[in-house]
# Entry
Amino acid sequence: MIPMSARGDNPLRDAQDRRLPRIAGPSGLVIFGVTGDLSRKKLMPAVYDLANRGLLPPGFSLVGFARRDWADEDFAQVVHDAVKEHARTPFREEVWQQLAEGFRFVPGEFSDHQAFENLKTTIQDLDKARGTGGNFAFYLSVPPKFFPTVVEQLKKHGLSEGTEDSWRRAVIEKPFGHDLASAQDLNQVVHQVFRPSDVFRIDHYLGKETVQNILALRFANTMFEPLWNRSYVDHVQITMAEDIGIGGRAGYYDGIGAARDVIQNHLLQLLALTAMEEPSSFDAKALVTEKLKVLKAVKLPRELGKHTVRGQYAHGWQGGEEVLGYLEEEGIDSGSRTDAYAAIKLEIDNRRWAGVPFYLRTGKRLGRRVTEIAVVFQRAPHSPFDTAETQELGQNALVIRVQPDEGVTIRFGSKVPGTSMEIRDVTMDFAYGESFTESSPEAYERLLLDVLLGDANLFPRHQEVEQSWRILDPIEAYWDKHGKPEQYTAGTWGPRAADEMLARDGRSWRRP
Ligand SMILES: NC(=O)c1ccc[n+]([C@@H]2O[C@H](COP(=O)([O-])OP(=O)(O)OC[C@H]3O[C@@H](n4cnc5c(N)ncnc54)[C@H](OP(=O)(O)O)[C@@H]3O)[C@@H](O)[C@H]2O)c1
# Structure
């Protein structure tokens, strides 16, 4: 007899079943570039945290690949140290012991054919010894110039194809290309080896709870969506501000800059989630369809000189410490024109958003570390109150705080207690930390688990990546030809030109 819940005629029971944790089936993960920064700080801890939460299969195996003369035990020690330092959940010896039995290390260069043959043997051995079932994800946590080499090596050595009963998947870090043409080239190389549905491009912002909450907020409620359009919204500001400089990442950052590093991926994804229409369901295909539609409707302003700004932080003070300017950082050419700050104005050419500007900005060494989406509403069409009494009333706003202090703030006007009708802005807050007892998983935990489950909802598809480059390319081309970044003092909120850009529209940036 079929159990009631499987027949689907007990809705309550079905709903409960869907809340059960999603546990990955038999599988393993190969990390290329396993000695790198990202791997130690994010990937190794995420693997442990998943194991600790009971979300990995018992025979889960982790294979590291890099140019070190390490035995499996040396690799295990490195993972151990990384987990102790960076894992989110408490260290439990029994979880660690079971997980570490599945650790293997394969030394080698990406160009070394023998190393890939060794990797193949390692995977076959793991299938036999630990029941990984031939299911492996290959995580390319490597400098972007090596993405094609590694993918091609996987193909050459027969590692990229699963069988009828097993899968092989590729996980690719950002940046995915440095312009439209290079992204298209890379997509072509990758798709010659892996099926599009087996390619998982990482935009770790999409793994954040608060980013997924944009969709919950908009489409699981009735009170926001009726206002979410040009009839009520004045403009939208999307900010990702960092208080740090480029640190030791000059080699990566110089020549790439803030717009390519952050706007092309994170901020345009946030824009897409904020502005898209309701998907027909919450599956990857339906989500991509809607995100792509809105990205295609994004329109660049005609005068790029007036509606885009780039900057570089200059020497200053931050958090009580004296800090170097961008051009003084180690490894940066004193004539560099790379943007460490970028702000752009975009419009969306559709019925919902016509005429509503979306202002995107990101930069290093700004006033504080914060990522937020602020939907700023129009002023009330008429005010029966005395202007003197509403002087401190701003525009209503709904702010989705992506990080830190994850949550949502609504700003509106309220009467100040007293005998007059004075009205001032107040805020109503929802904070994740206060409303929910469980702490949010790290983005990489969620995304790694999704890769093992084959769930592509939170991964940008190749069309989205290409569309985002289509938006950014003309801006980069304009910047290449015209002027240079404006200097701003470290610890402030960016170049003066960015304030002027909004002031010309009668608006101002938020100071989060
Ligand atoms: N770090 C971050 O927070 C961050 C954020 C976003 C995106 N990403 C992306 O994530 C990826 C990794 O970043 P990362 O900061 O971890 O880089 P990284 O610290 O420079 O590490 C690069 C890794 O690649 C390996 N490698 C380099 N050349 C190799 C070769 N010829 N053969 C074999 N192995 C080689 C290195 O191994 P050896 O030990 O052999 O040198 C090292 O493990 C990049 O695509 C980056 O853009 C990183």
In short: The longest helix spans residues 462-481.
